[in-house]
Amino acid sequence: MKMVIKRTLTASFVTLSLISAFSVLADQGKGLELAKLRKQADSGWQDSQATLTMELKNAAGDTSLRKLRIKSLEVNNDGDKGLTIFDTPRDVKGTAFLNHSHAVKPDDQWLYLPALKRVKRIASRNKSGPFMGSEFAYEDLSSFELEKYTFNFIEETTLDGQSVYLVEQVPVDRYSGYTKQRVWLAKSHYQPLKVEFYDRKNALLKTLELKGYQKYLDKIWRANTLVMNNVQTQKATTLTTTKLVFKTGLQVNDFNKASLKRAR
Amino acid sequence: MDDLWHRRILNYPKTWIVICLIFIATAAIGAGNLYFRGDYQIFFDDTNTQLYEYQKIESIFNKSDLISIVMAPKQGDIFTPQTLGLIRELTEQAWQVPYSSRVDSIANYQHTFAEQDDLIVLDLIPPELTFTANDIADVKQVALSEPALRQSLVSDSGKVAVINITVQLPEADNTEKMVEVKDYVNSLVASYQANHPDIEFHQAGIVAMNYAFMLSSQDDFATLVPAMLLLVMIFLGIALRSIAAVAYTLIIIIGAVLATLGLAGWFGFFLSTPTVNVPTMILTIAVADCVHMLASVRHHMRQGQTKQQAIAKSLEQNWLPITITSITTALGFILMNSLDVPVIRDLGNLSALGVLLAGLLSLTMLPAMLSVLPFKVKPKSNTHNTDRYDRFALWVINHNKVLGISALLVVIGSAFSITQNQINDEAVKYFSTQNEFRQAADFMAENISGMSSLSVAIDSGNEQGVSSPEFVTMLGKATDWMREQPEIHHVQSLADTLKRLNKNMHGDDPQYYALPQDQALSAQYLLLYEMSLPYGLDLNNQLNLDKSSLKLQLTIDNLGSKEMVELESRLRVWFEHNAPQYSVMISSPTLMFAHIGERNMQSMLQSLPMALLLISVLLVFSLRSLRLGLISLIPNMIPAVIGFGIWGLYSGEINLGLSVVVTLTLGIVVDDTVHFLSKYQRARKLGQDAQQAIRYAFITVGRALVVTSAVLVAGFALLGTSDFRLNSDMGQLSALVIFIALIVDFILLPCVLLWFDKQQYAQAKNTNEAHLAIDTNTPQTNS
């Protein structure tokens, strides 16, 4: 009698774990599939030029404003290329940052310092530090690539009345500042509406809300307001796109070391 | 009215017991709301200048609650593959500490260097480093030369390494979260200690200090309260020689403690290092009320009265003295409200509440219990003892000139020796040398740096103002000047980062290890640097949002409060002379403690005349005699004078805990005076002269005073054994003062009465008690 029960228990346990193993596999498959759809939906824009403002806010409510422009070039089968030009604060006006992002290996980064009139390559594996003292890390702003994460589909749900997929993505790079991100992708256009960032001890660090989605080129959906809240320090950063134009005719040679000095 | 009240108690004792029990139980439920607060902020008001500046600095820059792991290999060198590997491993592990937002060590220090036009940013001990002899030499060279690291994360000697973990504790349930952090670090360190017995580990930082505060409260609570109860039982057993009396007294005093703690919970109080001693205080003081009641009941029963008669008589005789002594004692505690330390005010208010409750219970529930429950007395005479007190009285009377003058000399000597006392509040020294935190502090002081810190925030007044050449030059000078100060062990300064970057950007040419003199260049260096840093190692702890303000973090010797305040003013003077255009804030927990002692003592001295006045008025009122009221000032004031005089010779250090001793003991020593003078007065009113009245007072209350003083001295002496110096110093000095008060009451007070109270008492013959004619051979002995 006892044996039978034990055997039944064992059998059901094995079945259960098999089922759950399958569902994990299935979830990983579905996660990757959704990530692919996300990447696909955001491709074919070729290049873009954007004007942005970044508002930093601390726990006490003080704010500080930064203005910048970002030129981007879509690169197939590798990370995109980007050129960031800082307009304010005044002291860093004209400082330009060039990055060739890569899926797995560290990004190539150069900085032009007008006060020094030199281009410097930054050899750093760090991508988790704050971007211009904001709550955005460099890695939060770099292009989305499938190779950077492993994915896991969690559930279909709703977020503020919109149907969404909740996907968990785990960074592959050990130099990432995160253990995982939870991403809410809109069912309508597969772009994220909300992201939660978990720090190294797997505690919630930041939440990003993406608002004001607009359609460009009849197919590309971009949010014009990104609000990053640090739940641990109560600091926040709002990144607002004031102008965004696609297909402006930028070429690869607009994104090399020489182009940095020319950048205005 | 009083008669009616007494009869109500005695006619319906069971109802009264039930009422009291219901009250105690209802109140006690509130104890569930009590919680511990272990942080150091509880010692400061929100309006405290230093706390305000500190909180402001914290809100402008990131909060900097730190817990540090200190590692010292026993072979005396951290620059070995094994230890460096361990530092790297532990640094990595430290990110798992709950609420951690930043980890700094020599392992993850962001080392920058140039290779042609490349700026390379790397961990000083990167994950793949294999520790060849060359690697180690490089790491050592950087670690011991980089101003950001030397004397902060690694000792000059290369013997000690430190890992700093910054935590962001949420506001709510701060103490609970702090314990979570400390527990995690404890187990982390314990596991590493087990695997590496050849390395000495310590923990430091504000989190460790807060934890030590909390632990010492809990230790005090767990050891002192039971010890006090035991002491009370032993003492009562000896004094009352009745198990029933001991049991009833315990019920009353435990009831008073429970009700007080419960009400404290209902009123939203919390427990902390000082308030955790409220039970001990109440236990100590409340015993006296019960002793007076029980002794008097026993006395009347021995005189042949029935139990009920004896209780009634005892109530009638004791309700006024118990009420008055409860009020004066409570007053002493309530006067702590003038002090600048919130938790000490809490201690005062809760103890006052407890003393009043104990007084109330001993006038209601105690007689009710005695009336219903068994209480037997063996008829036994005590004439031998009373003889002894009479002989002592005669001896004092006969030698009053010699005794009085010697007492006067002692007082004068003490007044001089009081000047030997110096106010000193040093949080580290609050803990005994047995304490783990104190040991860590001492170890660090010996091997790397003090544990004290100062945050200096400089506001340029303009956005991006910290990069202006003017500001940068000032910063460089300030940093250099601070490093020359002997008390300052380490300065974390952006000046070092800017110099280093300037050098890096010029191909590591040492000539360029200098501050950039161009606003845009400094700003662009910072932008570049910030972009290359990893998570948690940013500059937000040194620069504010719009880069208008900058923070310098100083590590300094564990200074006494005087030296600390002196250093602060030296810093302020430097900034006034060299940077008058910038506004500067200087603060730290250490500085808060350095200031609070002085201010607290001032408040205490200001409140003292008020305390004396209030208590004297009470005495004048209760004795209905201005002259005796004035005379009572002498035995009430002098014990504290002598006590602090002796303290000046014995210790000479006055901390927060001691500032309460004067008012606290004043409220208690008054009781003895009240008992003595009321008996003395009674005799005088019956027509006796001062000598006879003194003898009468000795015979009637001498033993009771010795016995109650003994329990008070024992109780406070017990508090004096606390590991926590605020409590132990308070206990020791209070015990001393109460002991001296007894001697003063027994020696100086009779002398003063003999000298100044020679007049006949007016009402002598027409009082209606006259026919009772005092018979010194059969007095009430309260024994």
Automatic annotation (TrEMBL), chain A:
Record keywords, A-Z: Signal
InterPro entries in UniProt: TP_0789-like
Cleaved signal peptide residues: 1-26
Domain Uncharacterized protein TP-0789: residue ranges: 80-262
Record carries keyword Signal: yes
Pfam families recorded: LolA_like
Superkingdom of origin organism: Bacteria
UniProt protein name: Uncharacterized protein TP-0789 domain-containing protein
The organism of origin for this protein: Pseudoalteromonas luteoviolacea DSM 6061
Organism taxonomic ancestry: Bacteria, Pseudomonadati, Pseudomonadota, Gammaproteobacteria, Alteromonadales
UniProtKB/TrEMBL annotation, chain B:
Protein name: SSD domain-containing protein
Organism lineage string: Bacteria, Pseudomonadati, Pseudomonadota, Gammaproteobacteria, Alteromonadales
Annotated keywords: Cell membrane, Membrane, Transmembrane, Transmembrane helix
Transmembrane segments: 16-36, 221-240, 247-270, 276-297, 318-339, 351-372, 392-416, 604-623, 630-650, 656-677, 698-721, 733-756
Sequence ranges assigned to domain SSD in this UniProt record: 250-372
Main location: membrane
Localization in the cell: Cell membrane
Organism field: Pseudoalteromonas luteoviolacea DSM 6061
GO cellular component terms attached to this protein's record: plasma membrane
Keyword Transmembrane helix listed: yes
KW Membrane (keyword) present: yes
UniProt membrane topology term: Multi-pass membrane protein
SUPFAM superfamilies registered for this protein in UniProt: Multidrug efflux transporter AcrB transmembrane domain
